[in-house]
Structures are given as C-alpha cells and as structure tokens.
Amino acid sequence: MLNRQLGDETLGYLQDEVRRIAELYPRMPLSTVFDDLAAAQSDAFRLIERGRARPSQMRQLHVLATLLSWHMAKACHDLRDESSAMMHARAVGVSAEQAEHPALSALVHGLKSLISYWSGRGEDALFQAHRGRC
Fold first, then answer.
1. Nearest alpha-carbon partner for 68 in 16, 113, 126
2. What is the pLDDT of residues 49-108, one digit of tens each?
3. What is the Cα 102 distance to its own chain's centre?
4. Which residues contact 107 (CB under 8 A, 6 or more apart)?
C-alpha cells in the first residue's frame, strides 16, 4: 500500500472552500451554505485523521479545521441548538490548540462566551471572555 502525502492542490482546494464559506456565511441564508460547511469540515478532519500531511500542512489543516468548526458552532448557535454549538466550539478549541495559534484560541473563548451568554449562563460567559483576552 502506498503512503501518499497530501497534495498541495488538495490543501489549496480546502483553503478556497474555507474562504468561500467565510465570505458567504454573513451574506447568504444559512440554509444555502450549511451543507457545504458540513462537507468542508468533514473533509478537514478526514485529512487530519489520515496523517499523511507534512508538518507544515498539518498546521494549516488545523487552522482550517478551526475556522470551519467555528463557523459550524456559529451556525448551530444561529439555529438555536446550543448543545451542538458548544460541542463544535470544543472542536474549535482542540483544533486551535493543535494549530498552536494564540489568536484562534482567543477566538474560541469569544465564541464560547457568546454561546454561554445567549444560553443564560452569564458566569460562564464572563469566565470564557476573560480566558479569551490576549
């Protein structure tokens, strides 16, 4: 069996998808981007799990997984599914940690704070907001 490395074109395609989804998300109804968002998130995690990426590519994959999971958590929050939103927010945290990206880690805590606030958990929202300060 061949142990094929992740190609740059595959990574480039996923980067383009993340960019496209991020640009469409605030401008289009959620129903028009949700399936693409779910598919791209699944693709990102599948590529990570395969373990065939070079170290620099793996970091990029974790950044992309962070951004996609952030949008998925936001989508679940927008759909008022707070439990799923927080589950995806935890995935954001894991991906941001793996990417070793402090700004993305701050973004995670901001998202968790938002979800907690609108779920009526003010103390948790404040705790997450404090953790997210850079």
1. 16
2. 988 888 888 999 999 999 999 999 999 999 999 999 999 998 888 898 888 888 888 888
3. 14
4. 66, 70, 92, 96, 132
DSSP letters, 35-50, are HHHHHHHHHHHHHHHH
In this prediction, residue 134 carries a pLDDT of 57
Question: Which residues are within 8 A (CB) of 125 and not within 5 positions of it... i.e. 6 or more apart?
Answer: 113, 114, 116, 117
| Contact call for residues 124 and 102 (beta carbons, < 8 A) | no
Q: What percent of the chain has pLDDT over 70?
A: 96
Tell me if 48 sits within 8 A of 62, measured CB to CB: yes
Q: What is the pTM of this model?
A: 0.86
- Is the CB of residue 70 less than 8 Å from the CB of residue 92? yes
Instruction: Please give the Cα distance from 50 to 93 (Å, whole number).
Output: 20
